[in-house]
Amino acid sequence: MKRYLLIVTLLLVSVLTAVPAHARESRVKIIAESGLSMEIKEDGSLWEFGSVWRDETDDFEFVSPRLKLKDVKDAAVGYDHYLAVLPDGSLLGWGANNSGQLGNGKREDDGTYYAEPFRIMSNVRKCYALGDASMAITTDGSLWGWGELYDKGQDFDMGGKEHTKPKRLMSRVESVAIGAFHYVVLREDGTLWTWGINPFGELGIGNTLSSDSPKMIMTDVAMVAAGAAHSMALKKDGTLWAWGDNLYWQLGFDSADVSKHKERVVHYLSPHDYHTKPLQVMENVKFIAANDWSSMAIKEDGTLWAWGDNKYNQLGIGEVDYVIPEDYVENPAFPDKWYIRSLPRQIMSDVKYCSLGGSGARILKEDGSVWTTGGFSYSELDKGTDITVPRKLH
Q1: In sequence order, what are the residues at sequence separation of 6 or more whose Cβ sits closer than 8 angstroms to the Cβ of residue 56?
Q2: Backbone angles phi, psi at 14, to 5 degrees
Q3: What domain range includes position 274?
Q4: Residues of the chain with pLDDT under 70
Q5: Is 78 in contact with 130 (CB distance < 8 Å)?
Q6: Cα distance between residue 30 and residue 7, in whole Å
Q7: Close Cβ partners of 160 (under 8 Å, ≥ 6 residues apart)
Q8: Model pLDDT for residues 86-116, shown as the tens digit of each residue
Q9: If you write DSSP's letter for every residue of 135-152 in order, what string do you get?
């Protein structure tokens, strides 16, 4: 009898330890965007907060945290559309649908806005959104995409092709990061695959040739992130790797001369510095995030680090003076210049989760409090201002 109980116990332990990683994931999440951001709490409730531009009133609606859905597994925020996965695997969508990003077979560029969530597909485990693109991973590991996506033979300046219904893209997928028109996919076996446009080496394949089909570039990967034209991978050993466009030093290293300029101001005509293969940036990392031109990482000790574009103070590093390099040339046609950070800099401690949106960051601390930095309107008082260091929201 004792031997039987021992065998049963060992079988139970083996079953529990064999549960896929995604089945044990916490639902807690913060999703940053320039307008409405979202938060999934421990109980699975989905909350929205921030500001929404209302064309009919020609003004903003300021949203204090309010409950959107009572129980979700995952959620994602695009430019003006929203996705949520329910516990039964149903994928819901609402918001704008000008590029077919809601996956209902329609494309409505007449200002139609779906205020109430509706069902897009079933058997979904995770969802993703960026701009007017949407993606989902189903319970069998299939990756599906719709909205404005890169299509075969597409040139880098053409914009995406609009798909109004979900299209199966890949199998055995664990997670995905969406770039402007490139995609970084982590498969269930820990391999990393990329495809899409590649003018700045964002695919990591060693050249700048676009690819219609996924290509494997790394193994032993735990997490992926992507900006407009750069990509990042967190390996299982805690090392962070980056590749692609480095115009705003969003890769986390100054490949020109690290010792000479740790901060600089750039303008739109600056020559692009890019890397077509992954290079190691940091160690002891447990979480990564990116937006168009900025990057963040949370280390094992809970410290939050940021680097890259700081035009809207999204890095949370405070007020700074412009540092203008000697070769900077003023151009009346492109007058914008702003401070950027070339090397990772510590911002906060005791951080659990972070997310970078279009012009700002949302940060979830271990105590459950939510913080923000960069461009964000939480009230009439904040409208049109940038938050230069992290501020507690709630």
Answers
A1: none
A2: -65, -35
A3: 2-71+172-263+270-316+344-392
A4: 1-26, 54-59, 153-159, 254-272, 319-338, 377-385
A5: yes
A6: 42
A7: 99, 132, 133, 147, 148, 149, 150, 151, 154, 181
A8: 999 999 999 999 999 999 999 998 888 899 9
A9: EEEETTS-EEEEEEE--T
The position carrying tokens 């409405």 is 36
Q: Is residue 51 part of a domain?
A: yes
CATH of the domain at 27: 2.130.10.30
With residues binned 3-state (H G I as helix, E B as strand, rest as coil), the percentages for the chain, rounded to 5, are 5, 50, 45
341: which 2 tokens?
A: 């950070």
Share of the chain above pLDDT 70, in %: 77
Q: What is the model's pLDDT at position 15? A: 32
Helices marked H in the chain — which ranges? 2-17
State the Cα angle at 83 between 77 and 87, rounded to 5°: 130
> What are the pLDDT digits (tens) for 168-196?
999 999 999 999 999 999 999 999 999 99
Total domains in the fold of the chain: 1
131, two tokens: 């701009």
If phi over 0 gives left and psi between -120 and 50 gives alpha, with beta otherwise, what is residue 269? alpha
